[in-house]
Amino acid sequence: MRKRRYSAIWLTAAFVATVGAGLASRLVLPSVAAAPASKEQDIATGGWNGERAMADIAAQLRFTPRSLDTPGHQQTIDFIEAELAKTPVKVALEQRFSYRGADGAEHALTNVIARLDPANPRRVIVATHYDSIVRAYRDTKNPDAPMPGANNSASGVAVLLETARALASLPPPPVGIDMIFFDGEEGPKSLGAGDPNWMALGSPYFVEHLHDVYPDRKPEKGVVFDMVCYRTLQLHPELFSLYYAKAETAKFWSIGASLAPSVFLNDPTAYPVSDDQTALDRAGIPSLLVIDFQYEPWFNTTQDTLDKCSAASLAAVGKTLLRYLYAP
User: Fold this and answer.
1) pLDDT in tens, 201-219
2) What 3-state class would DSSP assign to 235?
3) Taking 70 as the threshold, does the pLDDT of residue 260 lie above it?
4) Nearest to residue 185, comparing CAs of 202, 160, 210, 197?
5) Per-residue CA distances from 81 to 77, 139, 260, 278, 320 (Å)
6) Which is deepest, 19, 81, 82, 234, by most CB within 10 Å?
């Protein structure tokens, strides 16, 4: 299933059989050392600040609407780049492109790519999307109102920005990090009406031009974040992630469970979720998705607001990511 819970399943029978037989059971976590490799890393992990991440969400909400072709969309890009400029993770490239939909409308999109330790040949992608849905189409009272998107879009951006800040107090990790802020994950119609023909735009464009960014060799792996701030956050290993990146998914969940056992649960999701990680997977970059779909009754409504979020939830995800980036 793609990143929308109330939509058709796009899976082959072979994939369903494989997932059902081999993956749809409790995840067996490996013996990954939960503690980071050094005291300095432990201090830095503790320095990941959930309140600062909450402020990042609040800042993005001020730009609403942030969907394609709106002033708030460019304001969000400017905000991301301004915050990254204060960290060691520097913007290296803007991928600007356009997409013409079936209705003839042309949309301008931008993927933002920032790098830590660009000379390191070993690369890991840490990604999210920043575009929001064009309207709160599931809202029973105001379906045409702008979509705030505190959880669904702003939370992933907040995790990446605060991680970039936390990395400033760390020695370089063993891998170079590429933070990618994908555009157009909500699709050409921004899912404004629950688009049955949804397709992500930014991540497929990125993989189509992968050689421009990685002329010598592909990144080793990727982690994608989406909908990760809910105050009662519960994260389950996602089925596509288990299929394409099982070992890395298990490693991430093992670290997460050691830090926040009430957040990182072993039971896989009930269905596969297609998000920006699927384009990376199909490009041969084993990637996992960190997402919580248990977000009713606020999912894609005007009530996807800051009060539904928690600094503790964001910190559980962000600290897990930091330790994961330093794990062997």
Assistant:
1) 999 999 999 999 999 999 9
2) strand
3) yes
4) 202
5) 6, 32, 30, 25, 24
6) 19
Cα 72 to Cα 50: distance, rounded to the nearest angstrom? 24
By residue count, the chain amounts to 328
Sign for the pseudo-dihedral over CA of 168, 210, 237, 304: positive
Q: Which of 135, 217, 120, 227 is nearest to 173 (CA)?
A: 120
Side-chain-facing half-sphere of 154: CA atoms under 13 Å: 35
What pLDDT does residue 189 have?
84
Phi, psi torsion values for 103, nearest 5 degrees: -85, 5
Residues forming a β-bridge with 63? none
In angstroms, the CA 263 to CA 256 distance is: 8
Q: What is the pTM of this model?
A: 0.91
pLDDT for residue 194: 75
Which residues have CB under 8 Å from 41's CB, separation 6+? Answer: 170, 171, 322, 323, 326
- Buried/exposed 200-233: b ≥16 CB within 10 Å, e otherwise: bbbbbbbbeebeebeeeebbebbbbbbbbbbeeb
Instruction: State which amino acid sits at residue 91.
Output: V
90: tokens are: 């520097």
User: Quick one: pLDDT at residue 20?
Assistant: 45
Percentage, residues of the chain above pLDDT 90? 79
